[in-house]
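Notes from the 1:1 (GR / supervisor)

We went over the backlog. Supervisor wanted to see one worked example end to end before approving the batch request, so GR pasted a single chain during the call. The sequence is below; no edits were made to it. Supervisor asked that the structure be written out right there so they could see what the output format looks like.
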Amino acid sequence: TKTGATAKAAATGRARSAGATGAAAGSIAARSAAEPTAKSASRPTAKSAIRPAAKSAANPAAKSTGRSAAKSTARPARKAAAATGSGGATRPARAGTLRPSPELAAVIGGGLVARSEVVRKLWDYIKAQGLQDAADKRTINADARLAPVFGKPRITMFELAGLIGKHLH
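Structure output shown during the call:
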């Protein structure tokens, strides 16, 4: 019969192609979605069943965050050793190692600088002087100080890092 074929098609997921109405296919899908599967309804996983009991029994002094007492005491000790400088090999912050060309030094100042510091100082200068194009903020218009650094009257911000490399030694 047609209803038997429709029910069979709906059960196999081909309800619409077999000619069943949307309501019939929807009710079967809703009923199957509402019923839990055999796996999820049977029992909790082994991890979730064992873990809470093991935490409370093994370490009653554990924090509510779930850390064990050994971990919570080891971290502050490690931080304290790093703060005093007595433990571990801590490296000093790397100072600038690049010397800017005279053209670039006229804009950012002289002395040894890091590449990231050069980019930051250039952007500070560009924004302070209002050198970004009003219509296209990606474009930088060179003034009298930046023209020797850029080598042309206008550049895009994507060219900036490449042009800086030519002026750092």
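Supervisor's comment: The first helix runs from residue 2 to 11.
Batch request approved.
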